[in-house]
């Protein structure tokens, strides 16, 4: 299997894991505490793995620190979006914004050039994802969560480009994955502990299984996409990863009882067409 096909396979597995851990956070009674437990699980796993890799160079540390700031801002907007909006509408917006922005960023910052077919695939995936937002009639109450989701998506686009540069500058892919996860998994659990110590302790004691499941899926999702970023064009990897919205729509219908109608099926068809265009462009 060549690098491009391997990257596509890894990203599609990552998409499933990503939709799953986001659904875990959305299903939690406290999104903030659930996300803190998810990050805490990833932190403990990667702390145990630190002896497996060397300490990064100063250049790589710079990328790690920038990504930590962007990831933390993304998480804060993610929490706000899930606290006020439906999973089926918030998740598609949040994942629909990055492919288009990453395609632009990668051209100007990473000097990557996509073929016409690949660019058309990226745009189709972005359009299909964003169209999922309009499955339900828009109301004034939906404006805030959608705005939060757009902001979260913008930060996803930013940290994706930073991570691509960081993982390519690292000694190994595993080195960047472990050190980045350790650093970016500290802020949210620390904030949860400092702000609501008793609530956080109660959540860990009574719902730790949910946190562990979400943390494992989060680590699998992020680790695989970082590895894929080292194998293929950033815009293509970003677009393919956002196919997780199809899985997210199914989860929303099955577990959150959100309607799955012909519009979502049409959006899914557009996304699949985008995937096919990207695949044939390799």
From TrEMBL:
The keyword Transmembrane helix applies. Signal peptide: none annotated. It comes from the Bacteria. GO terms for biological process: lipid A biosynthetic process; lipopolysaccharide biosynthetic process. It is a multi-pass membrane protein. It is found in: Cell membrane. The chain crosses the membrane at residues 6-25, 32-54, 60-78, 90-111, 117-135, 142-162, 174-194, 206-231, 237-256. Its main location: membrane. One of its GO terms (cellular component) is plasma membrane. Residues 6-132, 146-278 form the EamA domain. GO terms for molecular function: transmembrane transporter activity. Keywords: Cell inner membrane, Cell membrane, Lipid A biosynthesis, Lipid biosynthesis, Lipid metabolism, Lipopolysaccharide biosynthesis, Membrane, Transmembrane, Transmembrane helix, Transport. Belongs to the drug/metabolite transporter (DMT) superfamily. Small multidrug resistance (SMR) (TC 2.A.7.1) family. This is EamA family transporter. It comes from Pseudomonas nabeulensis. The lineage of its organism: Bacteria, Pseudomonadati, Pseudomonadota, Gammaproteobacteria, Pseudomonadales.
């Amino acid at each position: 299997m060549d690098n491009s096909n391997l990257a596509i396979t890894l990203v599609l597995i990552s998409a499933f894991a990503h939709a799953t851990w986001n659904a875990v956070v959305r299903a939690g009674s406290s999104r903030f505490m659930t996300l803190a437990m998810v990050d805490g699980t990833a932190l403990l796993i990667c702390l145990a793995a630190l002896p497996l890799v060397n300490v990064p160079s100063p250049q790589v540390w710079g990328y790690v620190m920038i990504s930590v700031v962007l990831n933390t801002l993304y998480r804060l907007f993610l929490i706000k979006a899930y606290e006020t909006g439906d999973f089926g509408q918030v998740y598609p917006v949040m994942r629909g914004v990055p492919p288009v922005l990453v395609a632009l960023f990668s051209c100007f910052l990473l000097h990557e050039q996509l073929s016409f077919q690949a660019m058309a695939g990226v745009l189709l995936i972005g359009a299909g994802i964003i169209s999922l937002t309009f499955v339900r009639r828009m109301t004034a109450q939906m404006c805030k969560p959608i705005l939060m989701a757009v902001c979260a998506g913008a930060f996803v686009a930013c940290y994706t480009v930073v991570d691509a540069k960081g993982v390519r500058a690292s000694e190994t892919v595993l080195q960047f994955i472990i050190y980045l996860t350790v650093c970016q998994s500290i802020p949210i659990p620390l904030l949860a502990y400092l702000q609501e110590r008793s609530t956080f302790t109660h959540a860990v004691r009574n719902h730790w299984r949910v946190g562990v499941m979400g943390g494992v899926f989060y680590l699998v999702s992020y680790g695989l996409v970082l590895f894929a970023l080292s194998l293929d064009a950033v815009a293509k990897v970003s677009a393919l990863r956002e196919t997780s919205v199809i899985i997210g729509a199914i989860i929303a219908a099955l577990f959150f009882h959100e309607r799955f109608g012909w519009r979502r099926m049409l959006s899914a068809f557009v996304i699949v067409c985008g995937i096919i265009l990207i695949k044939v462009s390799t």
